[in-house]
Automatic annotation (TrEMBL):
Gene3D superfamilies: Spore Coat Polysaccharide Biosynthesis Protein SpsA, Chain A. GO terms for molecular function: transferase activity. Keywords: Transferase. It comes from Crateriforma conspicua. The keyword Transferase applies. InterPro entries: Glyco_trans_2-like, Nucleotide-diphossugar_trans. Residues 8-113 form the Glycosyltransferase 2-like domain. This is Glycosyl transferase family 2. CDD domains: Glyco_tranf_GTA_type (cd00761). The keyword Transferase applies. It holds the Pfam family Glycos_transf_2. It comes from the Bacteria.
């Protein structure tokens, strides 16, 4: 069943697609996942939304992606952005952090304030979460919830496109993103 079909021009990029979906809805809470994330018994989506509502110090609450994509922290020395595993604090199964995978529930107004940079068709994820951190968005991950991620790149797809990485680095005055 389809409630609404949003047709776009070809290859608008991930950021523009996410912004269009964000603009199309009206609910105060939204669920964001990639098209290859699957809801399973371990997702427990209603419970994840309930936890977001329960914790006033969380604006965006993620689940794990395949039990793998762990919470991360973002640190910069002004030239390099380091994205590494870690948490700010934890309570039960919830880990407060700066960076999570792309399967989360969040308040629409918070996402509307940050939005995804449409000049970044890819390499948009670290940029989005860096801007969340700078803006003071409270990000967390509940490690007791997960989505199944069945990622398959279509023929001809290039996951890493250096022109978008460079655009993101230039935007923030950075030289490099380090993933460790």
């Amino acid at each position: 069943m389809v409630d609404q079909l949003i047709e776009t021009e070809f290859d608008i990029g991930l950021s523009a697609g996410r912004n269009r979906l964000l603009d199309a809805g009206e609910t105060p809470i939204v669920v964001f996942t990639d098209d290859d994330h699957l809801v399973t018994q371990r997702t427990r989506l209603p419970e994840l939304v309930e936890k977001l509502n329960k914790h006033s110090d969380i604006d965006l609450l993620a689940a794990l992606s395949n039990d793998e994509e762990r919470p991360r922290l973002l640190r910069s020395n002004g030239r390099r952005l380091r994205i590494h595993r870690g948490v700010l604090k934890q309570r039960g199964s919830i880990r407060w952090c700066h960076y999570v995978g792309n399967c989360f529930v969040a308040y629409r107004d918070i996402l509307q304030a940050i939005r995804w940079d449409e000049s970044l068709k890819v390499e948009e994820h670290w940029d989005f979460f860096w801007r969340c951190k700078v803006a003071g968005v409270n990000v967390a991950c509940d490690v007791s919830h997960s989505f199944k991620h069945e990622h398959i790149d279509p023929p001809g797809y290039k996951r890493h496109r250096p022109q978008f990485l460079k655009r993101g680095l230039d935007k923030h005055g950075l030289e490099k993103v380090i993933w460790r």
